[in-house]
Amino acid sequence: MELKAKGFLFDLDGTLADSLAVVERCWCLFGQEMGIDPEEIIHFIHGKPALTSLRHFMPSASEDEIMARFRWLENMEATDTEGVIALPGAIALLNRLNELDVPWAIVTSGTVPIAHGRQKAANLPEPKHWVTFEKVTKGKPDPEPFLLGAKTLQLDPKECVAFEDAQAGIYSALDAGCQVIAVHAPEEMARREEIHIIVHSLEQVSVSGPDENGFFTLFVPKNG
């Protein structure tokens, strides 16, 4: 299976870096303090901006209360990097893109402190371009993050391949018009058939090029 693209957009958590333990530790502590079932929280939060989740679980709170809780969570998630590691194939793929001089960016729902902390903790190559929570007015699943990611690379979204693992991010990338590679796409996801390629690991992905039109070829063997 092949895709042609001029640029690549990567989600961070669950796509390039395994930060699940940190995310669940911090959000479960929030649940305990708020008297909310942690399982309900974990089911809701993945791929979404923290403020979206906080407003969902604190519907009666004032904006000041929500922002105070947001800063509390941000500090915990930015400073707790224990167990954060690169997912299989992530470092090799990013190094290959740098070797080929392929434009790429990280498009994350995390804030700058959280995103940079996890990128460093996972020893991932640092991107030249970031799209973080602070840069958008509407987070995933809205298409704005990936639209901005493509714009940052000075490319049309359809010229970009977006790598995502969570439903909110997959929908964001699809609605932006990107080609989408999903890592472990949820089986129950309503729009699963719209995903261009589904992989179990970034180790399955290889990249070559560019061709005479500036497109790089991304290849995933059919047998995985």
Automatic annotation (TrEMBL):
Reply yes or no: does the keyword Cell cycle apply: no
Q: What are the UniProt keywords, alphabetically?
A: Metal-binding
| Family annotation (Gene3D superfamilies) | HAD superfamily/HAD-like, Putative phosphatase, domain 2
One molecular function GO term is:
sugar-phosphatase activity
- Say if the entry is tagged with keyword Glycosyltransferase: no
Record-linked InterPro entries: HAD-like_sf, HAD-like_SPP, HAD-SF_hydro_IA, HAD_2, HAD_sf, PGP-like_dom2
Q: Which PANTHER family match?
A: FRUCTOSE-1-PHOSPHATE PHOSPHATASE, GLYCEROL-1-PHOSPHATE PHOSPHOHYDROLASE 1-RELATED
**NCBIfam families in alphabetical order:** HAD-SF-IA-v3, PRK11587.1
Q: What is this protein called?
A: Putative phosphatase
The top of its lineage is: Bacteria, Pseudomonadati, Pseudomonadota, Gammaproteobacteria, Enterobacterales
